[in-house]
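Researcher: Good morning. I'm working through a list of sequences from a screen, and I'd like to move beyond sequence-only analysis. For each chain I'm collecting a predicted structure so we can compare shapes side by side. This is the next one on the list. No need for commentary yet; just the structure.
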Amino acid sequence: MIITRAPFRISLGGGGTDLPSYYSKFGGSCVSAAIDKYVFLTVNQSFKPEMHLRYSETEHVLPGRYDQIKHPILREALKMTGIERPIEITSMADILSGTGVGSSGSFTVALLKALHTYKRNFISPQDLAEQACKINMGILNSGSGKQDEYASAFGGINYFQINKQGVVTVTPLAVEPDTLHDLEERILLFFTGFTRSSERLLKEQAQKTEEGNLDVVGNLHITRTLGESMKDSLETGDTLRFGALLDEHWQNKKARSQGISSSAINELYDFAKSCGAVGGKIMGAGGGGFLMFYADKPGMLRKAMQKKGLQEVRFRFDFEGVKTVYSVEEYRIA
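Model: Good morning. Structure tokens for this chain:
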């Protein structure tokens, strides 16, 4: 048996410029952090002549019959790695999909890591992230960008620079331990209570960017600049400025599309600002999922949002990225 885990991520700044519709023209950059909430994948040899695929549903498929697999990521990952043996694959996760923390990217990274480990193939985080991007962005045309897969593969708090050819340079942020502690104490995540599909919003943005819509392109230019400023504020330890930039980032992001926010989200955001939040944003493409805040008074904000009925998910940063947490070969050697 092989068990892998891949972290979810919180997007801190610059999200949206990691889409090919933008970076292929201008180059993109964003700041993202992996957190200690995970997707887990298990791969095990099956004693039956079928492949057993268990996620929110269960599939039984003959080995090599990729066309019969309903789950698109499982289908393409098995096809990419060329596995045609009867195996069992099971997935579990700490957080629901559709909540803006990069679940599809994390799932794909964990799955590919497990399948490569099963085949005894070594694969670097960079190559793993690129293979995951090829599946989600290329083959499945999900409309997503590159930060989810890269954040999950590498772990840590990183600055991702993407050139016009789509090559990603990963630079870990030089953040002092005191700053990390401050961020873990003062960044709060609250679940809005509803999930959403990001595909429509992302494809809408991509289409307008490709058409040269001046409002959207100009908005993304500002987003990229804000992300770079947030990187600087974190590396200098100016976390209050980071919080204020989060607020500016959110106001700019909302202007990109009507579907990014809603009256309910706006009401929650304004309420949080009145209860100790310096700034915040909706995670992912928008429309629902998690609200993230940097709070000058985290205790006050936590109590206020709990009274509103919002569930908080507490976290620490993950600096390991995707990893194999168990394999029978390692166990036997030990």
